[in-house]
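Backbone-to-sequence.
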């Protein structure tokens, strides 16, 4: 890793972990820095392995070549690291946040999350970002003397990218001036956390075009309405007239150029913002406005693409048909476990807050496990 800029999160200045690990010699000393250790803990976690069988747009059984939350997270980490390197940010921290950012997602993508949130509305609600933090703070069982992965403050701060005020207040009570304070006092997270947020959007906008076209749900004719894609597509066609209009290479090369332009755009817009605000430390970054950003023109183009995908892919009848089914599965599972907690494994069945235990259990499920459980319980 190249030398870190003054505004990067310096590993040796970490705000540390919630549980003291000094008493556990193998955890207390290491040739890895704290953020590298966070990344490794995430990679070895149960929740991370489950990302293979969780999906965002397409359900797991619909095809083997569509993105899963695992491949999405790897793509976010790759984009994030490239940009981090160019800006001399802490690549290890970016990688840790990116790999963990979707750990709290329910099965069946947004449909599952919406359904679980509805089911939990009388019991404090369900937010996937908050759930990602719960996974790494509470639900993973790896260590003899504490719950969770005991990650550093900086990684946890990046994982909690949104949080309702009510939940931020609850976290702040448990952990004063902690990871939720910024939602109450309007400050920003580290540049590494800001970067993961943007890398997430860059990644899904691009891979959803790819999956959308390959699945046949999006057509290239429709994509003419998306200038951010179409200008590259036309450019590639002109340069390589031998490629057929339906060719995979044409699609991939257009997406590659689109990704690469967004990456360079973020780097230059962020460098300009860093120049203006000139933060001299990661703590000064937190007092500035958001600094990792697109140029205004790229922001507009990216919003147009996002709303195109929303209208034409996420709301495609074939997609909504399966998401309606998924929503029913989650709702029914919730009701079934609420009435019969003993159908859950003992660690969940024995908890006193039954609705939260049910939400934790369901949200940890993979798409295929949730459908199997649903089949078993409704047989
Ligand atoms: Mg994501």
């Amino acid at each position: 890793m190249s030398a870190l800029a003054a505004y990067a999160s310096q590993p040796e200045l970490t705000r540390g972990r919630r549980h003291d690990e000094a008493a556990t010699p193998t955890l207390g000393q290491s040739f890895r820095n704290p953020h590298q250790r966070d990344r490794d803990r995430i990679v070895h976690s149960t929740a991370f392995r489950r990302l293979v069988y969780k999906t965002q747009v397409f359900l797991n059984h619909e095809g083997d070549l569509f993105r899963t939350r695992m491949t999405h997270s790897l793509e976010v980490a790759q984009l994030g690291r490239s940009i981090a390197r160019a800006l001399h940010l802490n690549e290890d921290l970016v990688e840790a946040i990116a790999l963990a950012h979707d750990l709290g997602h329910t099965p069946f993508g947004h449909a599952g999350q919406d359904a679980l949130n509805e089911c939990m509305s009388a019991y404090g609600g369900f937010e996937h970002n908050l759930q990602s933090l719960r996974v790494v703070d509470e639900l993973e069982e790896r260590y003899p003397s504490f719950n969770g992965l005991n990650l550093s403050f900086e990684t946890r701060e990046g994982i909690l990218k949104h949080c309702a005020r009510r939940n931020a207040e609850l976290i702040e009570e448990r952990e004063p001036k902690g990871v939720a304070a910024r939602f109450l006092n309007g400050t920003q997270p580290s540049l590494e956390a800001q970067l993961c947020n943007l890398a997430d959007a860059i990644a899904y906008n691009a891979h959803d075009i790819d999956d959308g076209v390959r699945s046949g749900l999006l057509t290239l004719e429709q994509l003419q309405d998306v200038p951010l894609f179409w200008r590259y597509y036309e450019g590639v066609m002109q340069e390589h007239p031998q490629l057929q209009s339906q060719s995979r290479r044409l699609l991939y090369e257009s997406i590659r150029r689109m990704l690469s332009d967004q990456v360079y755009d973020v780097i230059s817009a962020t460098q300009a913002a860093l120049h203006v605000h000139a933060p001299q430390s990661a703590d000064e970054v937190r007092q500035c406005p958001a600094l990792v950003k697109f140029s205004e023109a790229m922001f507009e183009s990216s919003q147009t693409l996002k709303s195109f995908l929303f209208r034409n892919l996420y709301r495609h009848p074939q997609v909504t048909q399966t998401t309606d089914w998924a929503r029913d599965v989650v709702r029914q599972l919730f009701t079934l476990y609420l009435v019969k907690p003993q159908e859950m494994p003992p660690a969940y069945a024995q908890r006193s807050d039954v609705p939260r235990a049910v939400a934790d259990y369901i949200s940890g499920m993979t798409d295929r496990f949730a459908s199997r459980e649903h089949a078993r319980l409704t047989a």
